Amino acid sequence: MAFVSTIRTLGRPRPHSLSRELPIKRQHVCKPVRVIELDFSDPDTQLGAAGLLLGLVAGIGAPLWYINRVEKDQDRLEELRALNRANFEATGEYMTDEEITKMRKPKWTDRREWQDDD
User: Fold this and answer.
1) pTM assigned to the model
2) CB burial class (10 A; 0-12, 13-18, 19+) of residue 87?
3) How far apart are CA 58 and CA 64, in angstroms?
4) How far is residue 91's CA from residue 85's CA, in Å, rounded to a whole number?
């Protein structure tokens, strides 16, 4: 709903001349925006454009790559668990840690030691 300006008359009927909407003049507070001319032959402009492009690629590409790696690792882990279950059903023993490490190398997050410092 659009904002409509009204005049409060405190219960009194408005005169006929005020019942019509009056045109409102708006003043521009800011100056009009002008076109910025960029000279792409300037080395500073090229460096800025390259930084912008590199920032976009790194800012969007790195999280997407990391998400892709995590999803693939989860798939590999599910396959390894299924293989471990099948091995247990066949032999009655689970796979050893060395066998699991040969099939799936630990990620950097797996090598951290979590310590409770409380």
Assistant:
1) 0.50
2) middle
3) 10
4) 10
Please report, in angstroms and rounded to a whole number, the separation of the first and last CA atoms in the chain. 55
Q: Does some domain include residue 48?
A: no
Structure tokens at 76: 């590999």
Q: Is residue 114 part of a domain?
A: no
Average pLDDT (88-92) is: 90
Residue 32 corresponds to which amino acid?
P
- Domain range for 83: 61-105
How confident is the model over 95-117, as a mean pLDDT?
76
- How open is the CA angle 10-11-14, to the nearest 5 degrees? 90
In a domain, 112, yes or no: no
Contact between 76 and 104 (Cβ < 8 Å): yes
